[in-house]
Specification:
Order of helices and strands: EHEHEHEHEH
Strand content: 15-25%
Number of strands: 5
Helix content: 40-55%
Largest sheet: 5 strands, parallel
Number of helices: 5
CATH topology: Rossmann fold
Structural class: alpha/beta
Distance between the termini: 22 Å
Strand order of the largest sheet: 2-1-3-4-5
């Protein structure tokens, strides 16, 4: 079974970069240009992983993750947030709204693939955390 990933970022170059890396690693990748589009996509398709930027128009990454974890979508799929924001408070907020992992841009391509693979590995408890 192919692992489906939704890459959410307003920058086309970032989406393309993430798509190329993840596709080459065997993931099936879809894209959304902002949080609102991501929520709409998640209502139509079950994804195994979300890779979400923080700073986007219409709906930022924090609101997007909150919506994905909320009653309407209620996804339990892992969410990896990636941002240029490097303060601890940014990471804390990401985890508070439901992200499983927070990385600061620029993210090394090999690291992105490694983290995506780890987050989508089935450890049997279905929570997507980095621990059993």
């Amino acid at each position: 079974m192919t692992t489906r990933v939704l890459v959410v970022d307003d920058a086309a170059t970032v989406r393309l970069y993430h798509r190329q890396l993840l596709s080459a690693a065997g993931f099936e990748v879809a894209e959304a240009v902002n949080g609102l589009d991501a929520v709409e996509a998640a209502l139509q398709t079950a994804f195994d992983l979300f890779v979400v930027d923080v700073n986007m128009p219409k709906m930022d990454g924090y609101a997007c993750v909150s919506a994905l974890r909320g009653e309407t979508v209620a996804t339990t799929a892992p969410i990896l947030m990636i941002s240029t924001e490097d303060r601890q408070s940014d990471a804390d907020l990401a985890y508070a709204v439901g992200a499983n992992l927070y990385l600061v841009k620029p993210v090394d391509g090999a690291r992105l693939v490694r983290m995506a693979t780890m987050l989508t590995a089935n450890d049997g408890d279905g929570d997507g955390d980095l621990h059993p």
